[in-house]
Every structure is written in structure tokens, then in C-alpha cells.
Design goal:
The complex is a heterotrimer of chains A (308), B (121) and C (289).
Chain A lengths: L5 E6 L7 H11 L3 E5 L8 H4 L2 E8 L3 E5 L9 H5 L5 E4 L9 E4 L9 H5 L5 E5 L3 E8 L2 E8 L8 H16 L4 E5 L6 H7 L4 E6 L3 H16 L4 E6 L5 H13 L3 E6 L4 H7 L4 H4 L3 H19 L7
Parallel strand pairs in A: 1-10, 1-11, 2-9, 2-10, 11-12, 12-13
Antiparallel strand pairs in A: 3-8, 4-7, 5-6, 8-9
Chain B lengths: L1 E6 L17 E6 L5 E5 L8 H11 L4 E3 L5 H9 L3 E3 L6 H10 L19
Parallel strand pairs in B: 1-4, 4-5
Antiparallel strand pairs in B: 1-2, 2-3
Helix pairs in contact in B: 1-2
Chain C lengths: L4 E6 L7 H13 L5 E5 L7 H5 L2 E15 L9 H5 L5 E4 L2 E4 L9 H5 L5 E16 L2 E8 L6 H9 L7 E5 L6 H7 L4 E6 L3 H16 L4 E8 L5 H9 L3 E6 L2 H8 L4 H4 L4 H18 L2
Parallel strand pairs in C: 1-8, 1-9, 2-7, 2-8, 9-10, 10-11
Antiparallel strand pairs in C: 3-6, 4-5, 6-7
Helix pairs in contact in C: 1-11, 5-6
Classes of the chains: A alpha/beta (308), B alpha/beta (121), C alpha/beta (289).
Amino acid sequence: MAGDVQEIVVISGKGGTGKTSITAAFAALAESAVLADCDVDAADLHLILQPNVRATHDFSGGKLARVRAEACVGCQRCIDVCRFGAVRLCDIGNDVVAKTCAIDPVACEGCGVCVYFCPVQAIDFEDAINGKWFISATRFGPLVHATLGIAEENSGKLVTLLRKEAQRVAEANNKTLIIVDGSPGIGCPVIASITSADLVLVVTEPTLSGQHDLGRVIDLAEHFGTPALVCINKWDINPEVADRIEATARERGVKVAGRIAYDPAVTKAQVAGRSIPEYDDGPLKRQIVTLWNAVRQELEKSSRPKEN
Amino acid sequence: MKIAVTAAGESMDAQVDPRFGRAACFVLVDAETMEFTALENSSAASGGAGINAAKVVIDAGAAAVLTGHCGPNAERTLRAGNVKLYTGVAGTVAEAVAQFKAGTLTAATGPNADAHAGMGN
Amino acid sequence: MTEGFVVAVASGKGGTGKTTVATNLAKLYAATGQPVQYLDCDVEEPNGHLFLKPTIAQRRDVTVDVPEVDLKKCTACGLCGQICQYSAIVALGDQVLTFESLCHSCTGCWRVCPSGAIRPRPLRIGELQTGHADELGFVSARLDIGHVRTPAMIHHAKEWINPEALAIVDVPPGTSCPVVAALRGVDFVLLVTEPTPFGLNDLKLAVALVREMKLPFALVINHDGIGNNETRAYCQAEGIVIAATIPDDRRIAEAYSTGAMVLDTVDVCRKPFDLLRDYVNEIRRRRGR
């Protein structure tokens, strides 16, 4: 991370463990932060942060092929070469043929092979608009977020762009921290969220599924050399599994930064459109504050090596 | 010989951009005449950015690249294109070129950033 | 009914209960004696095996094709680098570099090479497991860490759908390319949601997706009792059928946490799953399947 800006990314492996609720809570507790919602597939952070959008941009992640029906000669070469099953014959005809080829934009991966091999150059190849991204103002600071179009490829490019913008906004506004709401899983969007982050917080739950998925996400963080912390949310649902998760984390050299007990106030805060520190004043808030302090302490200690 | 320096802006006074693949742009300097041109880094937002950036500087005839850090895909591409890579470079473009000419920069022996490392910056 | 039927269990938001619904419904059906399969297509974080505890009969490598270049045949024409949209193959004069992790297996480079210097070679991206849990057929695909070809893994897993069985597909969360890959060609979608603001926000995205893909669907509301009434209001306004409702009950969470099948251990699950089974049976009956 360039300059004095640090970046913490909240991920989970398994979905539904509480990433977004915790990210929103951190946003409320942090003093000088830029927020980024990198769960572009199913973005929810804005429901708590209520952003005022200041800038909107189109996002193009790749290209789309489209047959010009009037130019098609129905040879079906495109159907032969497409590896993604994106081309079919359709009932739109022209002067030459009754049926022409048509490309399903949902299935098209923008590889360009049909474009190259069409004998009559009847296929256009254009930048696709896959989504929109925004820079907004919130009561906790600037928010960088996006909406990916329905059925679009989530290759991580949009996530990468959002992190770059968050960095730019942080530097321009003298903010020292970027807090990123990540996505579930271990694929492209998660990889794009965590590489070169100063710290990753993995939010897990005390279930066999949570434990299994945590292992894989720790593998991922190790693979990409990103330091990780764990938080066990709703730990009292199964204290034994919570203890086992803590033991496994320790064996792998990953610190457990905090535990949060199950509390209906988490959902109630969400329903009220508030972050936990704004809504609650009891044990839940205290546990979140303890977690946040542990995370901040770890951030102060760790920083990624930048040059050789 | 031509040297490509990753830069935050299109001038000799611009700060060296610490990232290679997602650098804002490249300043291509003729080491003898000190004439320079700016090369756009159009790959900055796309996948394979490091590889594309390497191709840009190779096609522009650079014999060396000065930058902060460079990931494995870009490093491999530069090596294949016979471009010498110098990492850990900071300051302005002009200062970086001066250090290169004075022989105080050390050539990198491999990538010094993780894959995708420039994505967060 | 010996004609197959594929039901996908999906959700916009993660953690709503897809795997709970998919595994328990699959088990419920399997006990009736008809051929039933459970396919775990959440290839990044598969969990079905934790609950079904299958006996695995076979493990197979799942591979994708990536380019392999024979430099002796290469004429340095540069066409491969030009056609590739992903920088997975790069032509630099007489050198050709390949970057496997960026490859989408589109076949463009080996098709375009004029001298036959490029061939496809298989690259392992993960593992497919097949087996059974009592009478239930079990298929699970798991992506290797660091690999990113999630849709390709999902396609591979779905190739194992038994065309004569009732196949229950456990889908990854979200609405982007992995989910599209899992939902393509299925007969029916059960969308699992929770009646919270995050749940509703992501449900709307999931509904937009299944409508875009022209797939019939119905809802399962899980954790009923938390959150607010907006989800039900939305369903009413949109004419969306709620096939079953599972209550929010700590006992369900506790049973789930141990890897237990909630149908076996928590009474309040009986009724919603019976309703769900009846609902899906009715859908099949109407289709003559």
C-alpha cells in the first residue's frame, strides 16, 4: 500500500457470517477512513451507510460479441468455434438466409474467437458495460462502491478498480485507513480484494461449515502472503466448535482477534439502518469495540514490505 | 538507450509510480539526450495488467525499466523481452534516471511484489 | 416418475440456508425410493459433505485446457498474442509466453496458429468426488486454492447429473458468473432468503437473475421471525410464491453447527420440509415429470 494509507479487508469464506455488519461497525468506530464495498455481486454496505452518490462511472470488464443479423450468411462457423455455448440459430432472417446466428450476451465471455473466424466479418466486438461504480459521501467518510450487472462476470477487475479508487480518495482526503467489505468464497473477487492488503479479518461462525470454509480462506491468505486475523461471530451457538476453531487458527499461526456472542441486536440494527455502535450500547457494542481495538493494534504492528 | 520509468505523471518531475503493471503512465527517456515521451498505461484497469504494461515498454524499445515493485507476470514478460528491471526506485523520474546513469541502482533478480500486488494500490 | 428433474437451490445472499435446504430436501426425497442426487456446486466452499457424510467412491481431477507452445514450430507471427483477450498467451518476437491462470480456454490461440505450434494441454483446477449417502447419489466439486475457474468446475460437476434422477443442485451465493453456470438449464429454482434488509436487497438481485435466465422459481423464507415484513410485502407485490417458511430457531442453528441434518434433529423443520417436498412434487406433476 503506497503512502501512509493502510488497508484492512473483511472476508469470510462462508457467506452470512456477519462481514457487512462488522465492516459497518468498524466504519462507525474508525476516525479517518475510506470505506469500500467490494462485495460487488451482492453489495449491502450501502443499506447501513446510506450514501449520497457524488460521482457515477460505467464499468467495462471485457467485451461482448454481437452478430449483425443483416450481414450473417448462416454458415454457423461461430457456433462451431464458441466454447461457451453462447451462439444459437435464431428466427431473424435476412435476404440470404431464413435463420441467422445470435449470441446470448449472458453466456458470451468476450473471447473474440467467433469475431475472428466469421468469414464475412458479421460480428461486432465491443466493450461491454458490465456495471457502474460510485464515489459517495457517508456519515462515516467516503464510500467507494459498485453494482455489477445481473449475470455478469465477476472477474475481480471491478474489485481492483474500487480498491485503486479508494486509495486515490484516501490520499486526496488525508485519510489513513481503508476498510473493505469483501465477498464470500475464495475466487477471483476475493483474491482481488486481499492481495497487498495490510491485514485481512476473516469473520467466521462456530459451525462445521464455518470451520471448513475458514481453513480454505486461511490457505488463500497464506497463498497470497496476506496477514490474517480471525473473529468468531455468534460464538455461543456452539462453544466447542468455537474453541476448536480457535485452536486450529493458533496452530496455523493466525490470531483470533475477538469473539462476538449471538445477539438479536445485530439484525435489529440492520433493520433500523444503523451500524451496531450507533444502535447498541450493551455487551454487543463492547465486544465490537474490543475487536476493533485488537484489529487496530495489529494494523499498527504489521505493514507489508514495499520495496526489495 | 531508452529507459522506461513508471510515473505518476507525464513529466521528468513526476514522482516514480511504485507499481509497474498499474502505473499511471510510463516516461520513456533517452539516456543520452535526456529527451522523453510519455506512454499511456491503458492496461491499468484490466486483467493481465502487468503483462500488458511489459508489452508497452518492450514495443517502445526500452532496454531498462525503473520502478518500485513488479509482480511475477510482468517480470517474466520483461525478461523474455530482454528488458533489464530495476526495482526499489523512488523519487522523481529525473532523479531515478540520474541514479541509473550513476550506476547506483541494482538490477532486480526476480519479482519483488506478489502477484496482483499492485491491485490494491 | 422416472423422468429426471433438476432443482437448483440458490440465494443472492450467503448464509441464508441453501445447503440446509438442499441437503435435507435431497435426503427427504431419497428416502421415498426414487433416484435422487445431491450435487454440491458451491465449488469454492463446498459444505454438503459435512451434513450428508457420504461414502466417496471416486475422486477425479478436473482439468481445463491451456495452451502449450512448441517453439520449434513457431514462426513468430504473433497471431496468438493478438487474438487472446486475457493476456494468457503473449508473443514477443520469437518467444511465446503462456500465463495459465489467466487462460479462459477459449481455443482461439491454437485455432489461429498457422504452423500448428500450439496444442491444448490439461491443467488441473480441482477435484470431483462422486459417491452416495445411503440411497442418495452424491456429487461434489472442489476448486483448488488459488485457481479461479469456478464456472468451469461447476460445468464439470453438472455433467454428472443423472438424467433419470431428481437432481438437487446446491448453488454458490451471489448472482454473477458462478451462479449463472450453476443455474443454466435447470428445471426449477428455489431461492432461499432471510427476511432482513440485506436478505431482501440480495433477493431482488437473485430474482432479477432468474427472470433474466427465464427460469421458474419459488421462495423459501428461512429464519422467519427476524428482520421485518418487507420481504413478504415484496413477494406479494411481485406475485412471488413462497413455497415454505422455516422459523428462526436457535435449535436449528445449534444442530446445523454440529453438522447434523436438521430434519432428523429439530421438530419444527418437519412441516416446512414436507410442504417444500409437496410443492416440488406438484411442480413436477404439472410438467409431467
